[in-house]
Specification:
This protein is of the alpha/beta class and 139 residues long. The chain has a single domain, classed as HUPs (Rossmann fold), CATH 3.40.50.620. The chain is 44% helix and 22% strand. The protein has 5 helices and 5 strands. Strands 3-2-1-4-5 form a 5-stranded parallel β-sheet, sandwiched between helices. Helix 3 crosses helix 5. The chain is globular, with a radius of gyration of 14 Å. The chain starts with a strand and ends with a strand. About 6% of the residues have low confidence.
């Protein structure tokens, strides 16, 4: 049913998404799918790496470790953008098309004050509205 599953990850916050990673791995095993871990990053240094090249190496290592430890096929992609706050959703939509993903498994941020005040928006909701692939949101 699913051949390629896209999983947006932030390597500096993996401790906040074990349920999301486990869900994606479980679905990948069930359908014998390729799991593609993707990170959208600024061109400036971040918490996970000093530059996009270093981040790509770390994400590839993470993907390989996940593949070996869970017996699944994995890939990784790092997408650079000048401003992730503004372009995150658009870059995710682009990478869905570029990779041929037919499912996205992504973490939800916990609801809070920012949602009630309409300061924060839902990345998943935008993907659901603008993409033609299934989006699985894990809370």
């Amino acid at each position: 049913m699913y051949s390629k599953i896209l999983v947006p990850v932030d390597l500096s916050h993996l401790e906040k998404m074990p349920k999301t990673l486990e869900t994606a791995i479980d679905i990948a095993k069930h359908y014998n799918s390729i799991l593609c871990y993707v990170t959208i990053t600024n061109t400036t240094p971040g918490a996970a790496a000093h530059n996009p090249k270093e981040l790509a190496e770390k994400l590839q290592e993470f993907a390989e470790e996940q593949g070996k430890s869970h017996g699944i096929k994995t890939q990784s992609r790092v997408i650079e953008t000048p401003d992730t706050a503004v372009e995150l959703d658009d870059r995710l939509l682009d990478v869905i098309k570029e990779t041929g993903a037919d499912l996205v498994v992504m973490a939800s941020h916990p609801p809070g004050t920012g949602d009630r005040l309409h300061i924060l928006h839902s990345n998943a909701a935008r993907l659901v509205k603008q993409s033609d692939v299934s989006i699985f949101v894990v809370r």
